[in-house]
Design goal:
Layout (H helix, E strand, L loop, with lengths): L1 H23 L9 H13 L6 H8 L3 H12 L3
Helix pairs in contact: 1-2
Length: about 80
């Protein structure tokens, strides 16, 4: 019973997301599944658990200062 309840919520979320996305991009063809959208949101929500900017810089083999500078160049913010 619980799975059906959540499945309906996932479908509603996917439908709303797709409606908003297609309104913003009327000339695009898009296909989404409820489960892939929820999986993506789950990954995004937990993607940085315990990871900080210093860890990312170390993994990339650059200094934290260089990472910050590149981030500013790409986003225009800190």
């Amino acid at each position: 019973m619980m799975l059906k309840k959540y499945n309906n919520q996932y479908s509603k979320l996917t439908r709303t997301f797709m409606e908003k996305l297609t309104e913003a991009n009327p000339d695009s063809n898009m296909i989404f599944s409820s489960y892939s959208l929820i999986m993506l949101l789950g990954v995004a929500a937990h993607a940085t658990d315990g990871i900080g900017a210093n860890d990312i810089a170390h993994h990339l083999g650059i200094s934290r200062r260089t990472l910050d500078a590149r981030f500013r160049e790409m986003t225009g913010s800190t």
